[in-house]
Specification:
Layout (H helix, E strand, L loop, with lengths): L4 H4 L14 H14 L11 H13 L5 H17 L7 H8 L6 H11 L7 H7 L2 H10 L2 H10 L2 H9 L3 H11 L7 H17 L9 H10 L3 H14 L1 H10 L6 H4 L5 H6 L3 H9 L4 H12 L3 H14 L4 H20 L15
Helix pairs in contact: 2-3, 7-12, 9-11, 13-15, 14-15, 18-20, 18-21
């Protein structure tokens, strides 16, 4: 042992014995061993100062004999077995563990009140967002920031997002990507944190559906007069919103454009025959008449002839009764759609054969 003393002064770490190792050295040994065996350790989630300490400790240590390694492992296993349960440190850790378990607006409020941002790589949060949420950020940020953001997105998502931008803006951002090679890691992280914080600050809607869908659903169950009056008012206030609402609305007169011929028999089977006859008998204006002919033209000839006779015998129908019957037809369509038994066509193109 005396012969080792002169060599020890040249070693960055004195000869190691189990009793001489501190907790940081033991932690460095366990981390080094796990990494050597391919374990994916989330070290980036540690506070920066602990990451620095761990890195410096691993860099300063050299040879550890087999007995020392065995003793450190045994001690580590004993500590693990005695450990019952751990909790995340601080509100940031708690929010990370409860992500997806508590409502988004509650998490955002807690994060804002405590001044806590989401932990981990901010770019992971940015990349995980839907294109509809990313697009407004692209519109509001500078060309340079948009170029960095585009570079960090998955290729498919970046291409789709680029295609949704106006041509001149898309070209400017694409060119700016070529200028991002000199950006430092610190700058990239700061941009990611800023964007993630900006996206976190956007209030999550307390409604399950888009405003267009909600207004369209309400107008679907309104009378024709109310629907026309509301749409006329929307045209004057916001013509773009009005047009999107019109596309979301499905009414009796939309059947020829939005129901495939093969689905007409399904709808007819689910209706009370008296309701169908009343709806067809009330189809006297040009648009409703087209719907009536579309329905009759896409069922068996014998059934269509029988229904035509019943419609003729039914005679004139009160406006209120006719509208209620047409609403029942629409309700049946909606029920079949919700059950996945038919798909509404877009109305902008013919059904593909």
């Amino acid at each position: 042992m005396g012969n080792l003393t002169p060599l020890a002064q040249y070693s960055p770490t004195p000869p190691t014995f189990p009793g001489q190792l501190n907790r940081r050295q033991k932690a460095a040994i366990i981390v080094r061993l796990l990494l050597q065996h391919g374990t994916d350790l989330p070290l980036k989630d540690l506070p920066d100062e602990l990451q620095v300490d761990l890195t410096m400790m691993i860099g300063s240590m050299r040879h550890i004999d087999r007995d020392t390694l065995g003793n450190v492992i045994d001690e580590f296993i004993v500590e693990l077995e005695e450990l019952g349960l751990t909790f995340p440190k601080g509100l940031a850790g708690a929010l990370a563990q409860l992500d997806g378990k508590i409502s988004p607006h509650t998490a955002a409020r807690l994060r804002k009140e405590a001044g806590v941002r989401q932990t981990g790589d901010p770019w992971e949060r940015v990349r995980a967002l839907d294109i509809k949420k990313l697009l407004p950020v692209f519109d509001s940020e500078s060309t340079e920031i948009a170029a960095v953001m585009l570079s960090k997105l998955d290729t498919g998502k970046a291409a789709k997002l680029l295609s949704m931008l106006p041509g001149p803006k898309a070209r400017r951002i694409t060119y700016a990507v070529s200028l991002t090679s000199g950006i430092t890691a610190e700058s990239l992280d700061r941009i990611g944190i800023s964007l993630a914080a900006q996206l976190d600050a956007v209030a999550d809607s307390v409604f399950d559906k888009d405003p267009v869908v909600r207004v369209g659903a309400i107008l679907n169950f309104s009378t024709a007069a109310t629907r026309d009056d509301v749409l006329t008012g929307l045209d004057e206030t916001d013509s773009d919103f009005a047009e999107r609402v019109r596309k979301a609305i499905f009414t009796y007169t939309n059947i020829p454009q939005r129901i495939a011929p093969r689905d007409i028999p399904k709808i007819v089977r689910g209706l009370d025959p008296a309701i169908l006859v009343t709806a067809l008998a009330a189809s006297t204006d040009p648009e409703a008449a087209k719907t009536a002919e579309y329905i009759l033209g896409n069922m068996s000839a014998r059934l269509a002839d029988s229904i035509r006779e019943e419609v003729k015998d039914r005679g004139k129908v009160k406006a209120k009764d006719g509208e209620e019957a047409m609403t029942e037809v629409v309700n049946e369509v909606r029920a079949l759609e919700a059950a996945g038994e038919l798909l509404l066509l877009t109305g902008d193109e013919e059904e593909e054969g």
